[in-house]
Amino acid sequence: xxxEMQIILQLLLATFxxxxxxxxxxxxxxxxxxxxYSLICLGSCIFTLxxxxxxxxxxxxSGFNSDPIRIIQAVAIGIGFVGAGVIFRRQSGVExxxxxxxxxxxxxxxxxxxxxxxxxxxxxxxxxxAILVGFGLMEERYFTD
Length: 145
What we know:
Elements (H helix, E strand, L loop, with lengths): L2 H25 L6 H28 L7 H17 L2 E3 L2 E3 L1 H18 L3 H25 L3
Antiparallel strand pairs: 1-2
Helix pairs in contact: 1-2, 1-4, 1-5, 2-3, 2-4, 3-4, 4-5
């Protein structure tokens, strides 16, 4: 398989996995849903792919040593700012923390797809859904007034 086809499949997988999580958020009628989660996963995949390609070009062609981990770190920090923007303090309590955490996990899934950790990305998606759906139901049933 050619490099371009591999990249296309990685981008499609990242978009799909983010979308799966986004669908759950849409079902719960949250502000961040299908589009947001798809874009977060896709964007983190793209940034990571760029970082890996820069690493390959600089290291193998010019002899300059770069660190692709910095791109992954920048994705994690950047998504932290996005997540902070969805957290609101209200008189009834704090809202948006689960959305922020979900966006952060979704960004990590996009990074996993970019570095070809496909099993990790799929398991991360399934566990994220299990937390949002299963633990959400448990919280509603046992921990709310």
